[in-house]
Amino acid sequence: MPLSKQKKQIHENKFHDMLGCWIESFLTPLDVYGYCSITLVNIDSVHNELSRQKNQKAVADTIIRIAKKFLLNQNSGETINSSLKELSSVIQAEHIYILSVDEKTFSTKYEWNMNGIPSCRKKFQNIARSYLRALKHDDLPEGQKKDFTFESLESIKKADSELYEFIISTGIRNVVQVPLKKDGEIIGYIGACNFAEKHDKEIKRILSEVSVFFASQM
Questions:
Q1: How many CB atoms lie within 10 A of CB 76?
Q2: Does this model's pTM top 0.85?
Q3: Residue 142 has what DSSP assignment?
Q4: With helix as H, strand as E and coil as C, how does 101-140 read?
Q5: Residue 183 class from Cβ within 10 Å (0-12 exposed, 13-18 middle, 19+ buried)?
Q6: What is the pairing mode between strands 93-101 and 185-195?
Q7: pLDDT tens digit string along 84-136?
Q8: E strand intervals along the chain
């Protein structure tokens, strides 16, 4: 009944846990009262290959729009939030976020969440920075610090069981994260989590390209 009243199509992309893939869904009201049409499309490798060139242009256009936002807008919080939303148009992930770091902790400062996905912001406040050291990243010499991917939760479990339990409690399945640097210092991270694993390299590239803009406003 709500769909019949709205008279509009509902469209979304969402990762399907049971099937282990992204599903594109279309929910369309019909003229017959109380009925609607539901179409589910598996976003598979064939679909991705056919749309690759179109996606590359979309990514380039998105990065340009983000660059313009940071050049023209002085409201850093508003600019960062709207830019994370821009990124969501080319990064299929449940969460896109900004972490701020100090000497001992890291916290979520900004985030974008897919519709229907609960916020993780409250859970990620004042988390011990030792969690990053457990992944043999945060204690590396400055010149060796690079972006990194949590490709396997089992590998994290072997490195640090406490970190593993924390990640499981947040509902995170996978993460790509790159550092935000200002004057050579890491001041935070920009990351995305819960995405189709075959997209991790593309997501890492996009985040790396926009990281300089976000760092400039931190």
A1: 14
A2: no
A3: G
A4: ECCCEEEEEEEEECCCCCCCCCCCCCEECHHHHHCCCCCC
A5: exposed
A6: antiparallel
A7: 998 988 888 889 999 888 777 778 889 898 888 878 777 778 776 666 544 44
A8: 10-16, 21-29, 36-42, 93-101, 105-113, 127-128, 148-150, 175-182, 185-195
